[in-house]
Structure formats: structure tokens, C-alpha cells
Amino acid sequence: MTTTAAPLSPTARSSVGRHRERARAARADLYAVLDAGLVCHLGLVVDGAPVVLPTGYGRIDDTVYLHGSTGARYLQAAGHGVPVCLTVTHVDGVVYARSVFSHSLNYRSAVVHGVTRSVTDDDERLAALRAIVEQLSPGSWGHARLPSRRELAATAVLAVDLAESSVKVRTGPPADDDEDVAAGGRWAGVLPVRTVFGAPEPCPQLTSDVPAPPHITARRPG
Predict the structure, then answer these.
(1) For residue range 158-198, what is the model confidence (pLDDT) as tens digits?
(2) Distance from C-alpha of 52 to C-alpha of 54, rounded to nearest angstrom
(3) CA distances to 86, 101, 167 from 51, in Å
(4) Residue 38: CB partners within 8 Å, gap ≥ 6?
(5) In the predicted structure, residue 21 carries a pLDDT above the cut 80
(6) Nearest to 129 by CA among 32, 179, 56
(7) What is the phi/psi pair of residue 181, to 5°?
(8) Per residue in 46-75, pLDDT tens?
(9) H/E/C letters for each residue in 182-193?
(10) Whole-angstrom Cα distance, residue 70 to residue 118?
(11) Is the separation of the CB atoms in 159 and 65 below 8 Å?
């Protein structure tokens, strides 16, 4: 996916408030958080009530794409240009401090504010679906059967622009108060959190002469 050197331009609602030192201004940092994820959380209001939905996604340049059944109520609601908030978070470590108040997480997070756009152009729809498939399962677009006309007709695709986005990152050891450090006697540090892929588990209907392809067996976390 292409990237740009243009920095993020925070708005009032996308500006980081607390711990501003953790904010990242480079658009490349936003892309890195989004591109490493498997699931985003989409927040919107449906029938007067807030809803937050976990869903797959894909990015092309400065646009995030989402998809689902044309019969899905949230997609029907979001398809009419409604404001949404989309988030992606990676937990990299649990930060154990000398005081419970100073416990924390090492993380990378992105928050996107925007208005949904229903994607109707055939070429953009296909490109968006490819981006979503390749985000979840890189290499599958060139390996598996491509969508049929009937499947495409039953699929809604939404776009959210990345213009109004923020990125926040925490790294490093706990930030204990000086008196807690001086008191000693309590362990403090970071317990790293890692995402790993296990060995592929073949479908029971798969014949023994069909091996797992390299884009599956060689996959590593992003």
C-alpha cells in the first residue's frame, strides 16, 4: 500500500488530550498501525443507540474500506453518509508498576473520525474487497476463487477517509513515583504480548494431495 510523508493534521476531536507525548504526527505511523491489524472496531449510532462493531477492513492510500452483507442493519444505516469512529489497537505489553495506580499497557492505537461513503463504482468496489481480503489473509486474492456477480451484488462496501485521524503509542518501562522506586521490594517491568500464528489446520473436506500454500505456511505477524 502506498504511503505519503504528509503529516497528520489533528482537528479538535482528533487531537490527543492526556499524555500528549504519546501522540504520533507522522501519517506513516497511522498506516503502520492500520496495516498491522486484523480487526477494527466501528462505532456509529443505529436507531438512536450507539453501537460498536468488530469487523474486518482494508486500507488503500488514505481510505479505509469495510464490507458486509447488503442486508446487515448497520451497513444499511452507515451507507447513507453517517458519522462514525473507527479504532484499531495493538497491545504490545502489560506494564507492571510498583503501585497499582501506575500499571499500564504498552500499545499502538489509531482513532479515525469520518463520514461513511457507499462505494458503488465497480472498479473501486473490487479494489476495496481485494484490500480487505489481503489485510486479513495476504496472498488469498491470487489463490482463492474470486467473487461471483451474485456475491458482489450481495455485498455492501463502505469507505471512510483517513483525513481526521490520531495515533497514540506507549512504549517502555513503568513510570513509578520516585518514592515507590526508593521503597524497593516490589517487582516492576513489562510482560511482552505477542501475536503468533499456529500450524495450519486443513479443512476436513480437503484431500491429502492439496498442501498448504506458502502464503499460509510462511505467514508471520505484521
Answers:
(1) 999 999 999 999 999 999 999 999 999 999 999 999 999 99
(2) 7
(3) 12, 30, 22
(4) 56, 135, 136
(5) no
(6) 56
(7) -65, -45
(8) 888 999 999 999 999 999 999 988 877 777
(9) HHCCCCCEEEEC
(10) 11
(11) yes
